[in-house]
Amino acid sequence: MIEKQYKGKAVRPDLKRLFSPKSIAHVGASAKRSPGRFNFILYLQNMGYEGKLYPVNPNYDEVYGLKCYPALAEVPGEVDMAILALPAPRCAEILRDVPAGKLGFVVVHTSGFSEIDKGGLEDELLELGREKGFRIIGPNCMGVFCQESRVCFWDDQKELKDRPGWVGYVSQSGGLSIHVISGCIDIGVGVNKAVSLGNQIDISINELLEYMADAPGIKVIAVYVEDIKDGRGFVELLKKITRKKPVLVWKGGLTEVGSAAAMTHTGSMAGNADIFRAAMRQAGAIMIDDLEQMMRA
After folding, report:
1. 90 vs 258, which has greater pLDDT?
2. The domain that contains 99 carries what CATH number?
3. Model's pTM, two decimal places?
4. Which of 59, 79, 208, 255 is the residue whose CA sits 20 to 30 A from 271?
């Protein structure tokens, strides 16, 4: 079990709670439709999510037929997953007022952090997470998909709600997380679980891969990576996983152009292509170079 340390104490994620949340709050919820706006409450309703949904926005009394709360701290009871879709500087402000133990996971959908040299905002979020007991997905990400619990982050994913899947997918790119799942819909492949984790300031690729390796519904794992924070741990983990499940690895930023794209997405630095490919061969992973290969594999 991968675990992190905070002030000498082990911090272990309960990823089952992440993939099967009984309650979800969307901070910044709105019924307005406009380019660039993500109506997560509507997506979840269309997906058939059966847990509790809590829109949060002080400007509305109701969103999509649900009572809207003025602040995350005022949502009743515990919240397994809170999705933050509001300006980056306000994320810490919203979380600072939440009582310790109230939140399980926070998905920071918002961009505007280390990918534009504002890593200090990430440090503040991480400190709040450790103090108040929640784990963070993101920032600069789309979030979580789980067919079994009918959790999603894009409206088209409702087409998978009754299609049991066997693919697990982890992506640092939000755009590619949408495109890969949409591609699976088009070719008739079911996705079991997927996570777009962006800058991965807290929950890491390695933690998610370890969980998916033991998930009985997942038969094959695909991953799009830009920045691997624990390269040695990543390779050693892949060696263990590939003994029982195939793993497809698509590495962004292996060319000069790709490196610039990776920096735009997540503030990551690309590694040496030859070294990375050799490490993947050693680990038993299958290298993928583009979306077409990902779909055909």
Report:
1. 90
2. 3.40.50.720
3. 0.89
4. 208
